[in-house]
Design brief:
One of its GO terms (cellular component) is membrane. GO terms for molecular function: 4 iron, 4 sulfur cluster binding; electron transfer activity; metal ion binding. Keywords: 4Fe-4S, Electron transport, Iron, Iron-sulfur, Metal-binding, Repeat, Transport. The chain has 4 domains: 150 residues, 3-Layer(aba) Sandwich (Rossmann fold); 95 residues, Ubiquitin-like (UB roll); 106 residues, no CATH class; 65 residues, Beta Barrel (OB fold (Dihydrolipoamide Acetyltransferase, E2P)), CATH 2.40.50.100. 33% of the residues lie in helices and 18% in strands. The strands form 5 sheets. It has a 6-stranded mixed sheet, sandwiched between helices. It has a 4-stranded parallel sheet with strand order 3-2-1-5, with helices on both faces. A hairpin with a 6-residue loop joins strand 8 and strand 9. It is globular and about 60 Å long. It starts with a helix and ends with a strand. The structure holds iron/sulfur cluster (2 copies). One iron/sulfur cluster binds next to helix 13, helix 16 and helix 17.
Length: 449
């Protein structure tokens, strides 16, 4: 088996958030292989922990992937302030005599956005709605690299490292089987409040879980890297639940066309055609525009939005929501069948390095200062006796179940096979019996009756 086949068989998907099947990324040749260890969203601890704890394994995987891609350059990009992590990685590079560079980034958000990272590392801007490969790069998250190391040792993806932060006794790292209930993870971190809601991921782009039903149903997937526990009345939840009609009214009455949303937009900074202030200016007449050409002229920029949230959570002095408006507009562009042309050769703006959003100021704006700067050092193993494993933990088609209720499965055994096209294998994360299969996933129990 070559590396791509091994990665596919092991069910590896991007561990940093979106869950793009990694074997598809690796089915290429690239000039530069970039490892994303920036962990740019505030409060997340996972990638830093992995760099400090598993540096030799990560470096071994970087060398293997770079050789597979025939990359001339292998780079681990992370924030310059991560001194302990840089020291651990540098020691491992020296010990292995590995041709791997460390690239130190500033402390800004979104340093870990892969297009921003590629621009910082190589000086090249990825085309609008393009891939890093369009400019000769492949980017993988540091957690994905650790999974590749495991795959080379014959271990599929069955566990996940994640941090639990916010209103807990102390930030903590957990190592848990995929499919573990999120409530088990929160309990292990000892929440300091009872009436809480959760964010899975980072405070800027994470998934909000507000209702008890949603919290109870949520499980750890291959992409879960962090859980934030916050009071239900926190500002972030208020912003997350604003309905589109309220946003439309607020925009019409309060947008002062200051352009801050555009000036600080990371995609605008790398040269993409995206001016959220113009989308906001035209929003009031959006329902009345019937002609698709006119619609594209007014709103086509929204197609280049990556949902980072800088515009609405940091830039806008009026507390408006350009990101949510762009999300709505993107849906409308799809519904109308409008194909917005792409600039394939964008050039970063000359002021790109002067307009980055400092993380500490962002944290203050998000109302999270009380939790910032607290780090997770301890890592606990959880061994639940029941897991629910979703078939769709990745971008693309859900995997197809190959077991049935009543089947005995060993940890690491294949549970659902990748579908045709873009998909990924899913493995049993504990040894036990399949006790339930739904269209969403399978429940395995190790309880003895
Ligand atoms: S930053 Fe806010 S007020 Fe300024 S143009 Fe953008 S949406 Fe309007
Ligand atoms: S969310 Fe806002 S800042 Fe981020 S890419 Fe979209 S328009 Fe730009």
């Amino acid at each position: 088996m070559n590396l791509t086949e091994l990665v596919k068989a092991s069910g590896i998907v991007g561990a940093g958030g979106a869950g793009f099947p990694t074997h598809v990324k690796l089915n290429a040749k690239a000039e530069c292989f970039v490892v994303n260890a920036a962990e740019c969203e505030p409060l997340i601890e996972t990638d830093k922990y992995l760099c400090r704890t598993y540096a030799p394994q990560i470096i071994a995987a970087v060398v293997a992937v770079a050789a597979h891609l025939e990359a001339k350059r292998a780079v681990i990009a992370l924030k310059g302030k991560y001194k302990a992590e840089i020291a651990a990685l540098s020691d491992a590079i020296k010990l292995a005599d590995a041709p791997v560079e460390i690239f130190e980034m500033g402390t800004f958000y979104p340093a870990g956005d892969e297009q921003t990272m590629v621009q910082q590392v190589t000086g090249r801007s990825v085309p609008e709605r393009g891939l890093p490969l369009d400019v000769g790069c492949v980017v993988d998250n540091v957690g994905t690299l650790l999974n590749i190391f495991d795959a080379i040792q014959g271990r599929p993806v069955v566990d996940k490292f994640l941090s639990v932060v916010g209103e807990v006794k102390a930030p903590i790292m957990l190592h848990v089987p995929v499919g573990t209930a999120i409530t088990e993870c929160v309990k292990a971190a000892e929440p300091t409040i009872t009436d809480y809601a959760l964010i899975l991921g980072g405070p800027m782009m994470g998934k909000v879980l507000l209702s008890q039903a949603d919290i109870d149903a949520a499980v750890v997937t291959k992409t879960t890297g962090n859980i934030i526990v916050l009071p239900k009345d926190h500002y972030l939840f208020h912003r997350a639940t604003l309905p589109m009609e309220a946003i439309r009214h607020q925009t019409r009455s309060a947008c002062i066309q200051c352009r801050m949303c555009t000036d600080l937009c990371p995609r605008y900074l790398i040269g993409h055609q995206i001016r959220p202030n113009l989308v906001m200016r035209n929003l009031w007449r959006e329902p009345g525009i019937e002609d698709n050409g006119e619609y594209e002229r007014c709103f086509g920029d929204a197609a280049n939005c990556c949902d980072c949230g800088i515009c609405e959570m940091f830039a806008c002095p009026m507390g408006l929501s350009p990101r949510k408006v762009n999300q709505y507009i993107k849906g409308q562009l799809r519904q109308r069948g409008i194909q917005v042309p792409r600039n394939m050769e964008p050039q970063a703006r000359s002021f790109v390095d002067q307009r980055h959003t400092p993380t500490d100021r962002l944290v203050a704006r998000l109302g999270l200062s009380a939790y910032y700067g607290l780090h997770a050092h301890e890592c606990r193993e959880l061994s639940p006796n029941e897991v629910f494993i979703p078939f769709s933990q990745h971008i693309g088609k859900p995997a197809n179940m190959v077991k049935a209720v009543g089947d005995y499965v060993e940890r690491g055994e294949i549970l659902a096979e990748a579908a045709e096209g873009l998909s990924a294998n899913v493995h049993a994360s504990i040894t036990g019996v399949v006790v339930e299969v739904t269209d969403k996933g399978a429940r395995i129990s190790s309880r003895k009756e």
